[in-house]
Specification:
The chain is 51% helix and 6% strand. It has 21 helices and six strands. The strands form two sheets. The chain has a four-stranded mixed sheet with strand order 4-3-5-6. Strands 1-2 form a two-stranded antiparallel ribbon.
Length: 458
């Protein structure tokens, strides 16, 4: 077995709940609560309907785990697929490590955990284990795999999901290493599908493949021990320039602290691509401070990083999916309405003439300088609003969006977001409040059946 895969597997199997710092547990619980909320918000999404109808006939009639949106019990593989797809359907889930950790790690941990009668502590530990693997897979790559067209959440995420599923199942170190190597052959997902139904589905497929990998390893399936790091393995295949350093984690990760504490979990304030959150915050602040009348805006100059601009490919959106990747929509919406909510992504709301007129006045100005801490982003984003009378109003530069690990969202705002999202599936506000409280006390749940009962027959 190769040292790199061996070390990852050993880290997964050696991790125990009692070794997690209280702050690590707190952050994971916030990520879990947020992820459950955005999953419940996706009840009416077409991609969820299509995936549910299609895969229900393909996975048999096992009753191992719960789909959060419908309350139906299905196989753990299918539950992982459908819950991850729903969680990512609105692009409202958290971010970190160039991807979306909770939408990958929670569905894998919950699905296998429910099948096996796991506790809340087991799920928290599995999440932490998957995050540790994801962080180390991310660190060995000096470049951004986005630039080669790969979607990290559905490539690296498949391996991290396998790690989480293996940990909650209590697999041995040898079996865990096999699960990671099996998942390497199941990792796929491309940036070109951003702004379509395939983006959340490719994450769902990756998570279900991670669960499959763990179950296959447990059943005795073998795989090459170097499937991750071999010159013709996954990481080299994903790498834009082959610029890999397998000892890099020793230099970039503090082994005395959890990866969750070091890299954080960024909670989204808006249901759009995270690449535009900072500049939307800048727009919201300057419009409020300067009392900008949107009808008097002649032009909006959006100063944003070149890598961010490449992800925000849809200039004038045709529907809600493409609006999530439209910088013009995001800036026009917050200027015109003062917010971006799930309701703002409705068809009639997107087609509003005043909003579409303002979208036409957005000009993207790309910044090629990169933030050394997060090279997917520029050091900061800002807007310059040019009014019809020639006045120029410039926002303050924004380095971290509201909800970023270094600019945390206050608990009241997080709970408000949870209610906004969960109300699409759970109508009773008291039940939503109770569920939120249970999720923020996840470590006290003795058996996941007690938690999953809240989703039955919604």
């Amino acid at each position: 077995m190769s040292d790199f895969t061996h070390n990852l597997a050993n880290r997964v199997t050696a991790l125990h709940f009692d070794a997690l710092e209280p702050e690590t547990v707190r952050l994971i619980k916030l990520g879990i609560a947020d992820c459950i909320g955005v999953t419940l918000a996706a009840r009416g999404e077409e991609v969820v309907r299509i995936a549910s109808a299609t895969f229900a006939t393909m996975e048999g009639r096992l009753h191992e785990a719960t789909t959060l949106v419908s309350g139906r019990r299905v196989s753990s593989v299918q539950a992982a697929l459908l819950n991850a797809t729903a969680a990512h359907a609105l692009d409202y889930d958290d971010t970190a490590l160039d991807g979306h950790p909770s939408v990958v790690l929670l569905p894998a941990s919950l699905a296998e955990g429910e099948r096996l009668g796991a506790s809340g502590r087991d799920v928290l530990t599995a999440y932490a284990a998957g995050y540790e693997v994801w962080a180390r897979l991310r660190i060995v790559e000096a470049d951004k795999i986005h630039s080669k067209g790969w979607h990290p959440s559905s490539t690296i995420g498949a391996v991290a999901a396998a790690a989480a599923a293996a940990r909650v199942a209590g697999l041995s170190m040898t079996m865990t290493a096999r699960a990671l190597s099996i998942a390497a052959s199941m990792a796929a997902g491309v940036v070109a599908n951003f702004g379509s139904m395939m983006k959340p589905l490719q994450v769902g497929l990756a998570v279900s493949n991670g669960v499959r990998a763990a179950r296959l390893a447990a059943a005795g399936l073998t795989a090459s021990s170097g499937a991750l790091e071999h010159p013709v393995g996954l990481l080299h295949a994903l790498s834009p320039r082959g610029n890999l350093e397998f000892g890099a984690s020793h230099d970039h990760i503090n082994e005395r602290s959890s990866a969750v504490l070091q890299f954080g979990i960024n909670i989204k304030r808006y249901p759009v691509c995270y690449a535009m959150h900072r500049i939307v915050d800048a727009m919201a602040q300057v419009c409020a401070d300067a009392s900008i009348d949107p009808s008097q805006i002649a032009r909006i100059d959006a100063h944003i990083g070149v890598a961010q601009a490449a992800m925000l490919r849809d200039s004038i959106p045709e529907d809600a999916l493409s609006a999530k990747f439209s910088l013009s929509f995001g800036l026009a919406c917050v200027a015109e309405r003062g917010h971006i909510t799930l309701d703002d992504l409705g068809g009639e709301r997107i087609d509003d003439p005043a909003l579409r007129s303002l979208m036409q006045r957005v000009r993207v100005v790309t910044n090629h300088e990169r933030d050394p801490e997060d090279p997917l982003f520029s050091p900061a984003d800002w807007v310059v609003i040019v009014l019809k009378d020639g006045t120029r109003v410039t926002s303050e530069p924004v380095k971290h969006a509201i909800g970023h690990a270094r600019r945390p969202m206050i608990m009241a705002l997080l709970e408000q977001k949870f209610h906004e999202c969960a109300s699409r599936t759970i109508m009773d506000s008291r039940k939503r409040t109770t569920l939120f409280e249970h999720l923020t006390r996840m470590e006290t749940i003795e058996c996941l059946d007690d938690l999953m009962a809240a989703f039955a027959a919604q």
